Amino acid sequence: MSAAGRSQAMHFHARAGEKVRNVGLQRALQKAKPLFVGKRAKGIAALAEDGLDFELLRSTGKNIRNRTLADLDVWLDIFEERATASGAEVLWARDGAEVSRLVVAIARRHGVTKAVKSKSMLSEEAQLNEALAAAGIRPVETDLGEYIVQLAGETPSHIIAPAVHKTIGEVEALFAKEHGRPLETRSSADIPAMAQEARAVLRQHFLSAEMGISGANFLIAETGSAALVTNEGNGRMVTTLPKVHVVITGIEKLVPTLEDFATLMRLLPRSATGQSISNYVSLLTGTQREGDHDGPEKTVFILVDNGRANLLGSDYQDMLRCIRCGACMNHCPVYFSLGGHAYGWVYPGPMGSVLTPLYTGIENALDLPHASTGCNQCGAVCPVEIPLPTLMHRLREEQNERGLRPWSERLALTAWAWLAGKPVLYRWFARRAARYLSWLADDSGRIRILGLAPAWTAGRDLPVSSGRTFQELYSARKKA
Amino acid sequence: MSAKDEILERVRRGVGKDRFAERRAAAVASLKSAERGPQPTMSADLVGRFRAKAEYLSSTVAGVAMLAEVPAAVAAYLAANGLAGEAVATADVGRLDWAGSGLRVEARPAVDADKTGISGCFCAIAETGTLMLLSGPDTPATVSLLPETHIALVDVSRIVATMEDAFALLRAEHGSLPRAVNFISGPSRTGDIEQTIVLGAHGPCRVHLILIGEIS
To answer: Kind and range of the H or E element at A303?
Structure first.
């Protein structure tokens, strides 16, 4: 199925209402937000202790990503040459369906019955788990959050904390059912016991799976390597124990050198979780070497386009710098009001509001570029300076240019544009409108129900000014 | 048209430049410069820095004056934590006199049943308190991965300032990368249930570092 076909992004409005009323979700989100924001702030502040300036660091990170994208054809060629020379195979996939076809074919060729997976958002784009299951191959997610989401039959609601929408009670119920034990009442104090339980179950999967599937946080052109960053160690398991290792990654994930990677590693974990470094950072190159006791006998890189190449040279190229840290959603008031599932596709939050329309079709995600308060928190924290609000604005403009907005909105904007070009008429009209709004307000100066747009006041009141226009107030002030 | 040709055609159109061979040669040449981004300024006491950062990341740290003292230090750590005197070790450290300290240490890759794994490291990074391990015939990656307890020996002369310094050392001493370069910073952890940090996810629950040659 095409990406657009299974995206639920067109139902953003309906889902948003549902999510706001979901008490468990709201409790989980309210607990998570200050933790995400506080940890990152502490991690970024700690840079100063080593004389590192965050602004300089992130402009360096931005330049590394821009330099790579400016000659991406060249860097892909160098990466392919060096990865192949080190013993890996490099395949290419135009879209998610092709990713799934390739992975299933590799699995069949090597007699794979079970694949352990380290978190890969690209495999969510490809709906790889469904394709593997349909081919009789059992996919097992091994990141604890992904494992929880897989047991629940859901999708991740956050790119680095996939189960952030789940409360401990929900996880306990899932574990009791899946692990065949009686339901207990668990509190936060029991979280270590639950992690132990998952460790024991997943350890057996690591030891028995014939194939490991991972993403890559970065591809390094210089060495033909995949860089994998995890805290749990599941990334190491998946890439060390099974006899086949498949790396699925977007073509934009390249960086030229190990030094470039080191710079980005000062930005990625800090922006994501506030850590100075993640517990495990692995550079994986080629296959098991002569005399090695572990490591895969077969390594395959699948380099995926799925809409990425079309962004090169477009108004949206800046988005390809994204290093998937999640800081934008961690600081987004819209994300923390709704959670990630409201966004309807793989990527939530501000980066998702840009990527979903670009990868699944602008006409299939009309609400997302509007799911913004314009506060620019996302742009301010982005470790590679992606101007997310600007990109959302550009998408809104494009909706207008392509006539994708509702007729009422287009009519209103056309009328306003006409009016704004006629100063005398505009002033007359603005005066009438200000008086009207002031008349509508109740004694406390608030409008409870706005006549022309009742939906706007369904969940909030509109505070009203004195009933005079800006220009009236301005000239009064000049005289005074 | 193959997927590769089609994707590369789209990439080329997006990049919008010609003279591919010339640009490629320039890119390859630029790799040699190994140009670094902004570097941290740290005190000259790399050992102290490494130790403080490693402890901050929940590793425990001990020090011995010389390699021969390691088995006794390991035996003391295992006893203090109520752990059995048995371990699997990478071949490079398996040669020490473990039996002399009452330990049964086998030099081989680790299996699921192993409770303690002992390894050396290629080098260590002071900036973040990180170990750098290379996979290889004598240094199987499983020893630092499967057991619940990982004990790593760190020669203080191998503590460098940054990840960039570690890469420089790697380029100088090895031409190419092994299958796996693993940077390890403390015990494995997860925060996936209600954002509560728990030590011991899939990798080791305990990481103990023994610094060799530390003057303290």
So the answer is: strand A298-304
